[in-house]
Amino acid sequence: MKPDTELKAIMSPKNQISTAAAYDIQLLFPVLFLVGIGIVMVYSASSAVALQRFGSDYLFLKKQAIFAVIGIMALVACRHFPYQWYRPLTYPLLAVALLFLIAIQVTDFGFSAGGAARWLRISYLTFQPSELARLALVVFLAYSLEKKRARIKVFSIGFIPHIFVFGLFAVCLFQQPDFGSVVILGALTGLMMFVGGVRCTHLFVSAIALLPVAIYYLVEADYRVKRLLSFLNPWEYPADEGYQVVHSLMAFGTGGVWGSGIGQGLQKLFYLPEPHTDFIFAIIGEEFGLVGVLIIIGLYGLILVKGIQIARNAPDTFGSLMAFGLTSAMGLQVCINMGVALGLLPTKGLSLPFLSYGGTSLLLNMASIGILMNISASRNT
Question: Tens of pLDDT along 97-127?
Fold first, then answer.
């Protein structure tokens, strides 16, 4: 090929599209922006706690910055790992995620914090298997729904296997206990099955059948009943079950429109528990006000809209379902975390993607973005 012919080939529209799609800026920009805000806010929210507990106000800042670097590496790796290769990895991923969840209960590596055993600790490494379970479930559902699409309306083929796998994860998560993750995985399974073509009657009847089980679980333990009552009116329980929500709402109220200023919030000073993890959104509301809250919501909106666009334009059913599942999982986690912080949902121990402190959550969410970018770029090759 002559040099001028090679130059024309490189400058062709097809190659320009492929190069531009290498890292989808419309998706990458809001993600990196949120990660940057998260590093700053983790320091702001955790400095007092870290200084008191560990003697260094920079402890969580340093760790979150390291997590962010590793997360970016995961994003780049997953961007260049062909999403079609997840097909043969479906069942190994499921097995590893399930074994990790079981290991929390049956081995000495299980680690408890805040009254819940949700982590594995190996030497200095702490890992939350429920985050891997979410990714493994998305890959499995995308693979299985595509494989069975010709007979997806059959109850024993399109419904039972998928609910069975979800049930395995749910049983393990209930033992921790981690009801929040069960809710996300359950909603995610229902959404992906609906989009995948499973009969709506099967989904509706199963939801009605599971309702008594959910109600029994909620009222079976006194602390869950108190948590539900405090959700209905947290101001009646300001010293116990309603304490977190009351102080979260006070943070938003104090922030007003423009906020008190970065680093100037008061609720993080040993009033609001877990200010750098579950309730970091409240600290953002206090220090950046309504304006900051709307910016955060807007950034998440850009990610979710782009994720749905990628799902709609994916080259095949597997890529479409996987993109939809990853986007839905992220959207559900964002909605539940923000709903809890604003007193719109009962308290659940869920992190806010890209913002909350935590290596497992940040790593797997960044990996999910990399997978979405790979699906997006695949339609241009």
Answer: 999 999 888 877 777 665 567 778 877 778 8
Sign of CA pseudo-dihedral 297, 31, 184, 221: negative
Report how far residue 193's alpha carbon sits from residue 201's, in angstroms, rounded to the nearest whole number: 12
* Contact (Cβ atoms closer than 8 angstroms) between residue 98 and residue 169: yes
Domain boundary residue, one of 220, 242, 265: 220
Total count of residues recorded for the chain: 381
Same domain, 257 and 350: yes
Please state the separation of Cα 206 from the chain's center in Å: 25
- Main-chain dihedrals φ then ψ at residue 122, nearest 5 degrees: -120, 110
Spatial neighbors of 161 by CB under 8 A, at least 6 apart, are 144
The residue out of 181, 196, 220 marking a domain boundary is 220
Cα Rg of the chain, angstroms: 22
Q: Which residue has 């979150």 as its token pair?
A: 64
Are 269 and 44 within 8 A, CB to CB? no
Residues 109 and 152 in one domain: yes
Residues 200 and 120 in one domain: yes
**Which of 181, 188, 178 lies closest to 329 in space, CA to CA?**
188
Question: Residue 125: beta bridge partners?
Answer: 122
Domain hosting 195: range is 81-220
Residue 381 has pLDDT above 90, yes or no: no
d(CA 378, CA 319): 9
Rounded Cα gap, residues 46 and 273, in angstroms: 10
How many separate domains does the chain show? Answer: 2
Q: Is 126 helix (H, G, I), strand (E, B) or coil?
A: strand
Digit-coded pLDDT (tens) for 54-94: 888 899 999 999 999 999 999 999 999 999 999 999 999 99
Question: Are residues 275 and 380 both part of a single domain?
Answer: yes
314 Ramachandran zone, left/alpha/beta (phi>0; psi -120 to 50)? beta
